[in-house]
Design a protein that fits this description.
Elements: E1 18-23, H1 24-35, E2 40-46, E3 49-55, E4 61-68, E5 74-77, E6 81-85, H2 86-93, E7 101-107, E8 112-117, E9 120-125, E10 146-151, H3 152-162, E11 168-175, E12 181-188, E13 193-198, E14 205-206, E15 214-218, H4 219-226, E16 234-239, E17 245-250, E18 262-267
Antiparallel strand pairs: 1-5, 1-7, 2-3, 2-6, 3-4, 4-18, 7-8, 8-9, 10-14, 10-16, 11-12, 11-15, 12-13, 16-17, 17-18
Helix pairs in contact: 1-2, 3-4
Length: about 270
């Protein structure tokens, strides 16, 4: 990894100023979820904080994520968009520990991003935002009928177990032996099967009258998507029948009890033919 690189004159869509200082954990968590979906991103330097949307080349996974300015020690931005290589900025952030202060500052003359973390200074070349894959619209009106909230620990357990036997995982709603709503995480392999039942009592929250949900998804995506989710997060799941699945969660809790930002990930289903 080199310390400085040549950059296109169009690496920023504006010559807006930008500077942010905050704990390494907040920046790392923010960029890691994008990295689970894509290699590059357009980073929006909004007045309220950092924001972005990415989609993978196959149009299977999408991510919309934000990092609120309230989570940072200092934040100043006058708007604009910059293009980033995600693995590169995460490599730099990885040189520090979770509570180390990280400073990001945009040099509007050279159009490079200066990064400081734990005594390390790095000058990162930016990418022309126009060369990056167009940002998708993550629809909020899919009308997915089954919505429930689960502890991330239970979701992670189901994904990990399914990965032991199959390349795909099924999420569906059903009725437990007690006659109450339950969520099932299932995987069928060539010889072995996995079934995890999250009963009504295990769910953090549910819709008043949840509908039916039953869809199959690629585990390759889910294994990457789950990595950045905070271990103590509560994840809201929106599910339909052979429809995309949505996961919503809040970032690491700040000292005042608020969340550093929030993330939505949408995954297209593997539609089963009759």
């Amino acid at each position: 990894m080199s310390g400085a690189e040549t950059v296109s004159a169009d690496a920023t869509e504006t010559s807006a100023g930008f500077k942010a200082i905050g704990e390494q954990q907040y920046f790392a968590e923010f960029f890691e979820q994008f990295d689970a979906i894509a290699d590059e991103m357009k980073l929006h330097l909004d007045d309220g904080g950092l924001f972005g949307i990415v989609v993978d080349p196959a149009n299977v996974g999408m991510c919309r994520d934000s990092l609120d300015r309230e989570a940072l020690e200092h934040y100043s931005a006058t708007g604009g968009v910059i293009g980033l290589n995600l693995s590169r900025i995460l490599d730099i952030l990885g040189m520090g520990n979770s509570e180390d202060l990280v400073e990001l500052e945009l040099d509007t003359e050279t159009r490079k991003l200066h990064i400081q973390v734990d005594g390390l200074s790095y000058t990162l070349a930016l990418i022309d935002p126009d060369s990056i894959r167009k940002e998708p619209e993550i629809p909020d009106d899919l009308d997915l009928p089954a919505t429930m909230t689960v502890d991330f620990a239970d979701l992670k357990r189901g994904i990990t177990a399914a990965d032991m036997v199959s390349d795909h995982i099924r999420f569906r709603t059903g009725t437990s032996e007690e006659g109450k709503l339950a969520v099932y995480v299932e995987a069928e392999g060539d010889t072995d099967d996995v079934d995890l039942e999250l009963t009504h009592e295990k769910l953090v929250a549910i819709d008043a009258e949840p509908g039916d949900g039953d869809s199959l998804f690629s585990l390759d995506y889910l294994k990457d998507i789950k990595k950045p989710i905070p271990k103590d997060a509560e994840v809201r799941i929106e599910l339909g029948e052979e429809h995309p699945i949505k996961f919503h969660y809040g970032h690491t809790e700040m000292g005042d009890g608020g969340l550093a930002g929030d993330c939505t990930v949408m995954l297209a289903p593997r539609v089963q033919s009759d």
